[in-house]
Amino acid sequence: MPRILIATGNRGKLEEFSCLLGDVFSSYLCLRDLNLPGPEETAPDYLGNALIKARSACDRASCLCLADDSGLEVEGMGWGPGPLSDRYGPDAPSRIKKLLGELADRGRSGSIARFVCVIALAHPAFGEKTFEGRIEGRITETLKGTRGFGYDPVFFIPAEGMTMAELPTGRKNQISHRAQAAHQALTWLHAHPDWLNT
Among 45, 59, 79, 163, which is disulfide-ready with 73 (CB 3.0 to 4.6 Å)? Predict the structure, then answer.
């Protein structure tokens, strides 16, 4: 079985992808494992940034690489912050506080929202492939739940009756935006075994 490099320095994200992709790969590595830097994310959209990260990792490591770019889109914010979600504030609590404050100022508390994720695969011999997942919800005015990360505590999913941060891990790994994109990528890889055998 091949190894795969997840183009992130975040070990939490590495662990999440290892759960989503399962035993298809013999090992999961992140950029820190190979002392590789992460590139500057200069694209205006998820697709561009995911490809920047996957290409950079693949060029340096010469193996199959996966990168994702994701964000929160809120109707009351003009569908922002979008690709700038991670740069909306210095840390998750600050970003949530800023988001709720701006929605309240605009009279748009409880806005419809969605999480979007684009995954890019890059292979040194076969090129690139991308996949997209999304999940719909709305923004709550109070934080609920301790699981997950980022905006999860204020992202309420009506069909589940709870926030993303309240979802059991197994359920989150079935329905989240990242899970949807990862499932598409895994299905595609099984249909293209050359990507897994080199």
Answer: 79
